[in-house]
Input
Amino acid sequence: MLTHLRASARAFRRNAPVVIGLLVFAIALANLLDVVWPGMADHFHLLGYLLPQRAAPWAHALAAPVAMLVLGLGWALAQRRRAALAIAVGGLGVMAVTAAGVRHWGDAVACGLLAIGLYALRGAFPVVPAPAAVRQSLVRLPFAAAGAFVIGVLAVLVARGDAVPELSGTDVVRESLALLAWRSGPADFPTAFNWLPEALALVGIVALVVVLAPLLRRPPFVPDPQTAVARRRVDDLASRHDSGSLSQFVLRPDHHWLFSDDRDAVLAYQVEAGVFLVAGDPIGNPDAIPGLVAKAADTAARHGLLLGVMAGAEGMRPHWRQVGLRAAYLGDEAVVDAPTFSLEGRAIRKVRQSVTRVQREGYSARLERVRDLAADERDALERFRRERRDGEPERGFSMAGHRIADPGSQPSWVAVATGPDGAIAGVMHFVPGHRGTTQSLSMMLRAPETPNGLMEFLVVQAICGFRDMGVTDVSLNFVTGGRYFREHHTAVQRMRNRSWRVADRWFQVKRLEKFTEKFFPRWDARYVMHPGLALGYLRIGMAAMWAEGQIARPRELVRLGSARRAPAEQQDAVEARS
Output
């Protein structure tokens, strides 16, 4: 019971900023709609406590800009900004004092209690402004105040002839300060300049926004760059610990690394579109992984980033659940059991026929360690890869390599098919799992003029070669939504099956699933870990598609092709230093 209550309290604190932000956002939106369709309610009832009775005629005109300001505040609260919390608490406190001054005790108590409640939840708002943002606001403050004051004085001087009663020199300053602060000054402007109070109040709002804007922005997050020392540590963890078939992909050059406090576990991530996107599973000492997961959640929260995980394994779901993430099925990883694989039997006869036909046409294959290849052979394979990719980087945030090379100290393997003329016809690159007992397909390429069945031939040669070496599992392709093609027993499954087949016209996932199914693999489910909100799930999906290279980032639309190849060049430099 006590554990359940603690879990409920953690969930409440975790979700409180979003609920509060959405509530403030909804109130501001209702007031904004009230400006468009008057009569919905008495807009900004609480704002009336900040305005004297004489200012009531122009309070309605300020409803729209103030509502926009509160909309921004609500969004910042939902993003867990500590500065937004301070502004909300301060505003509620001023409203409570003002309401008490006019003896509206119920409203005063309500505002006071809300301010106290928000302050008590300050721990749920961990996103603190960067020191540079604080300095920027302090620098802006005198300029914004001076600019607003000058505009106010000049405007009142121009409109002084319309003032009732007439304004003296001192009264001009008092009137300007009052109107900039949304108060009614010593005079009225009943005729030609009756719009002046609203205009100067709007100037005051703009000045306030200019000063506060840096405090409400998400603090910049600068990941630690890859270094030779860090890379050696990651390589050591991947070599010593059994962390699944995707462990070697954490060494991709476009990843950043987050270590546990004792540096006995690590995870790979990228920051895309405000999302702290983790690639696959953490690797390292199992005892250090829970602390690393908590550290990742804390790092994302302190920087205002949404935490998400792509291609997480079933066994990691309880760890991510402890930090508030839910699991949504992403797809299946196809893993072939190498010791039991065979071309014998009726079920696999089509693959056997393809292999026989390709061999009869004069094609052959070999499986070799990349480090054992001669320099000219490696160069030929790299040229083949670049020609097939046409200068584009290899797609794959968590399940693909970027070039044919050993990602770390463990040897990678390459299966090469050659044609009757001795030219390279197809290539498969495999990276090792724990101590080489698992091999994961990192890259699969073929020449366009090769016959059908060549890739089946190359897969069979690779699996048989690994089987003879004592490899237990060979991880082939990853099929997004694979189970949706295979499940059609219930009405819901049939509907999902039809929908997925329609979507396959654009994504062509079924073709990959059908190809992989020929080798009778074991399907291991992989998941997206997300915070549970629909908007958050969509943001994680967009960030993942950018990281995977499925869609171009906005900045890449105007980037030259040479800049896209920069990660590979950076990787070469890092490995040269190490």
In short: The first helix runs from residue 2 to 36. Residues 39-58, 560-578 have pLDDT under 50 and may be disordered. The radius of gyration is 32 Å.
